[in-house]
Every structure is written in C-alpha cells, then in structure tokens.
Amino acid sequence: MPGDGGVGYDRWVVRRTLLPYAVLVLVFVGAIIAVLGHGKRLEEGRAAAPPAATALDAGAATPLGTLLAQIIVVVVAARLCGRLSARIGQPKVIGEIVAGILLGPSLLGWVAPAVSLSLFPSNSLGTLKLLAEVGVVLFMFVVGLELDLESLRGVAHTALVVSHASILLPYFLGVVLSLVLYRSLAPAGVPFVPFALFMGIAMSITAFPVLARILEERGLTRTPLGSTAITCAAVDDVTAWSILAIIVAIGKAQGLASSGLTVLMAASFIGLMWYVVGPAVRWIIGRGAPGRPSKNILAFVLLMLIGSALTTERIGIHALFGAFLVGVVMPREATFRAELVQRLEEVSAILFLPLFFAFTGLRTQIGLLDSVGSWLMCLAVIAVATAGKLGGSMAAARLSGMGTLDAFSLGALMNTRGLMELIVLNVGYELGILSPRIFAMMVLMALVTTFSTAPLLALADRLRKRRSASVDVENRFRQHARVS
After folding, report:
1. Would you call 33 helix, strand, or coil by DSSP?
2. pLDDT single digits (tens) 360-378
C-alpha cells in the first residue's frame, strides 16, 4: 500500500474504485438492455396505435411552451414601452397599456398576422386570460391595502363634493351619450338600461393608483393639492366600485327580483366582512410579531383573498370586489401593509399586469374604427369623458373655494383613468354589454385621458409661474410708484 498522503495515494484510490465502478455500470446497463429486449416481444399480437400526442412532434409548440413564449414577449414589450413612456414624462402604465395594444390585432396582427397567430393562437387565450385575471385580483387587493380609511373618515368638504361631482356629472353625460351610441354600438340583445348604466360608470372611473404615482413623481403628495386629490380619488374609488357592483349584479341577473337578491347578498357579505371578518382577521394577525408578516401570515392572507374573491364571484358581482374588500379590512399597521404591498405588487406589476394589458390588447381592434363616423364617435366619447370628469371636478372645486388653477389641476388628476378603466371595460366585455367597437373606443379614451394628465398639469404650472411673475412685476411697479 502506498504511503499515506500525497499524489501517489490519490492515484491508488482512483485505481481501486475505477474497476468496481466500471463493472457496476456495465452490469446494470446490460441488464436494462436485456429487459428492454425481452419487453419488445410483448408487442407481438398487439394492434398498432396512433401517435400518442402530435403536440410532441418535432417543431410543435406545447401549451406550456406557447405560454412561456407569450410571457417573455409580453414582459419585454411592457418593460421597454414602460421605460419609453417614463422618458417622455408619462406614467409607465401608459407604455405598458400601449405595449399590450401593439401586440394585438391593431398592429402585430395587422403587420405580421402569421407571427401573431403563432404567438397568440386562439386555443391559448384561455390560459392567458386566467393568468391575467389572477393578476388583476392581486392588483385590486393591493388597491384595497393602499386605501387610507382615516382620510375617508375625516374627509374634507372639498374632497367629498369634488369626488361625488366627478362621478355624477360624467355618469349623467355617459347615460345621455348612450342614447346616440346604443343603436349602432351596443351588442345585439343587450337592453338599453345595462348598456347606459355601464357607459355611465365607465366615464366616471378615476385610476387611484396611477394618480398616486403621478403625485409622487411630481413631488405633490404632501401639498394641499396632492392631499385633496388623493382623498377625492379614494372617495371616488369606493363610490364608483360600489356602483359598479350594483351594475354588474343588474347585468348578470335575469329580472328585477334576481338583481335585488344579488345586491342583497352582496350587501350582506360586505357587512359580514366589515363587522365580523375584518376585526377577527386584525385580531389574529395582531397576535403575531408586528411589522414584517411571516410566511404563515402571508399564506393566511392569500387564503382570505382567494376565499373572498371566490365568494363575490359566486354571488355574481365579480371576484375583483372580494379582493378589494379583503385589502380594505386588513390591519391598518403601516409596516404590515407596506410589506404586503411590496411582496405582492412586485409580482403583480412585473408579471401578471402586463399579461392583462396584452389580453386587453388582443381584444382591442382599432381597425374596427374604419370610417369617419366611427372616429367621430370615438372623439365624442373622449370629449364627453373629459368634459364630465375634468369639468365636473373643476367646477365643484371652484364652488368649494379652491383657486382656478388648483381646481383645474385637480380636475386633470381626477380625469386620469389608466388601468382601473381597463379593468372596468373588461368586466363589461365579459358580460357582453360592450361590443368590440365600443370596447376599442373606450380603451382609446382611457389612454388619451390618462396621457393628457401630465401635459395639463405642466400647463397649470406654467400658468402659475406666469401669474406669479406678473404679480411680482406689478408689486415692484407699485413699490416704485410709492417711492417716486
């Protein structure tokens, strides 16, 4: 035996183990080959079977492969368009929405139909839709988490008046506009009442999360204008989503009695969540260590989220409302909510929401607006939406004592629709209340009204600076006149 240690010992160990290893491998490989040879004889007398699965043929895409390719393309397109949007002073969500539309029939399906069909085959859209809806459910939970109930309890007179005026006026104008659009744009068999009610609520939505991000990016969060806008948007969100729940109940129900029962069940569930489940959840979570939630707490919260979403879906008012409600009743402890938002929003915003934008883009067929009349209708929708939301908010703010430019800025912020509008529009599309043509018009309206927020705020800032400079000149002139 070689001496201990050194290179010689290592070589001796290798030679000692190499031979048994080679024999072991040869024995088992030979045994496997023998068993396979014996098994081939079992095929004798059996009828030939067709190929097991054509999807496994060379070059064929499996459902999982198709989905993974879709995710890669969608996420990359959303990130690129989001960065481009941020560079031109717009919220990233604008670029992500545009990316979804570009991947749909409005561009990719028009320029390269073969590529579009290969990337988004019709039999894959069901899976894409489910993932997109999961993302929206998570997003609505985060929206509920970020809702500041303390500001709603002590809401200022201005915020209450502006938020409700910013719903009532555009809602009324949307219902009036439905008189013109119903015959040519409503789907066949849809009664006027649900169509008009849905057009009203689609005109009334404010994108609370997008508005909050715009204020943060412009450094307005702590200003009186920013505080008022956030509070107005929060009240607007709660009111508009409550109205939407009733409209969805009416749209899904067959007859007045069924609609009333759905609304009653929804109201009972909201009361149960608010007065029973909410306090119980806060007590259970409060027993643990404050701050960062543990994995067990996170699992508990997700089960609560899924259970509430499932309940509202079974009631008949959509899973989104259940997710939003669970977010609202979560403990108010700031660190806990911030941790939940950070954990869920990252996955939702980076992965799931771009899939929602892509699925919305696949539904948006701008090519359906193929005449001057269609584009005039689209412009009318945009004008009515802007006049109702911006005009109603501005008028109410002025009546409440706010200055003209601040009232205009507040109206521009409340006119932001963004992702929340797309969620509402997809609900209407799912219910069959919106046709593909009016759906495309409303998506364009959501883009234009959200895109216009930053330029309108910049215009208000320039007017303020000009007015301030004019006042300074006037004051200097008066001071000089007094000296003279």
Report:
1. helix
2. 988 899 988 988 999 999 9
